[in-house]
Amino acid sequence: MKVAIIKYNAGNIYSVDYALKRLGVEAVVTADKDELCAADKVIFPGVGEAETTMKFLRVSGMDALIKELRQPLLGICLGMQVMCRHSEEGGDVDCLGIFDTEVKRFVPQKHEDKVPHMGWNTLTETNSDLFKGFTKEEFVYFVHSFYVPVNEYTAAVTDYIQPFSAALHKDNYYATQFHPEKSGGVGERILRNFLEL
Questions:
Q1: Residue 179 annotated as catalytic
Q2: Is residue 77 annotated as a catalytic residue, yes or no?
Q3: Given pLDDT bands bounded at 50, 70 and 90, which one contains residue 12?
Q4: Domain at 121, CATH number
Q5: What is the DSSP string of 92-118?
Q6: Closest by alpha carbon to 172, among 106, 142, 115, 128?
Q7: Quick one: pLDDT band at residue 197, thresholds 50, 70, 90?
Q8: Maximum pairwise Cα distance, the chain
Q9: For 27-77, what is each residue's pLDDT tens digit?
Q10: Of these residues, 77, 102, 117, 169, which one is catalytic?
């Protein structure tokens, strides 16, 4: 199986590569369009900022390519957010529009609401093959200041300040707001499920 990790101006790419190596998968980290199109699975990870990322994707032509891919693609954190239609990050930015929904800034409601949302939290209402074999609410690791509201593409929910989409799914596109590569055994199961799609 060929697994490709999209290489672009974002952090966290190599921690995803390392997590795949722990599962016995040698992925290629690439921005080459032919390699991405030929891959059986594509992962679109990211830690960074939406506006800068979208500028890079547009200049490189990667924005059009990502929307044309037909194999299973997994967006992680920023990768998930830029797959949405629009983000409030960076003074408002239009994104890829794969998921017809917005990315909003967390607004603390009380003193103990800290932003970014950072640390372990549970997944509920899971309804995607990413979570195959889950029998209870599982803990995964989050680091984010922006969130996607619950919508028609929501594949898992987490509650922090308000309920939000912890995962999205539409056709061949899967996405997680949390970091499976930093979520221990639960994250490994999610990555394995993705690789088995």
A1: yes
A2: yes
A3: confident
A4: 3.40.50.880
A5: -EE---SEEEEEEE----STT--SSEE
A6: 128
A7: very high
A8: 50
A9: 999 999 999 999 999 999 988 899 999 999 999 999 999 999 999 999 999
A10: 77
Q: List the domain range (segments joined by +) for residue 128.
A: 3-196
Count of domains in the chain? 1
Segments in the chain forming alpha helices (H): 13-22, 33-38, 50-60, 62-68, 78-81, 184-195
Q: Which of 26, 37, 179, 188 is catalytic?
A: 179
- Whether 181 sits among the annotated catalytic residues: the reply is yes
What tokens appear for 39 in the block?
């891959």
Is the pLDDT at 118 greater than 80? The verdict is: yes
Its pTM stands at 0.96
**3-class SS of residue 146:** strand
Task: Give φ, ψ of 94 to 5 degrees.
Answer: -75, 135
How many angstroms separate the CA atoms of 31 and 80, rounded?
18
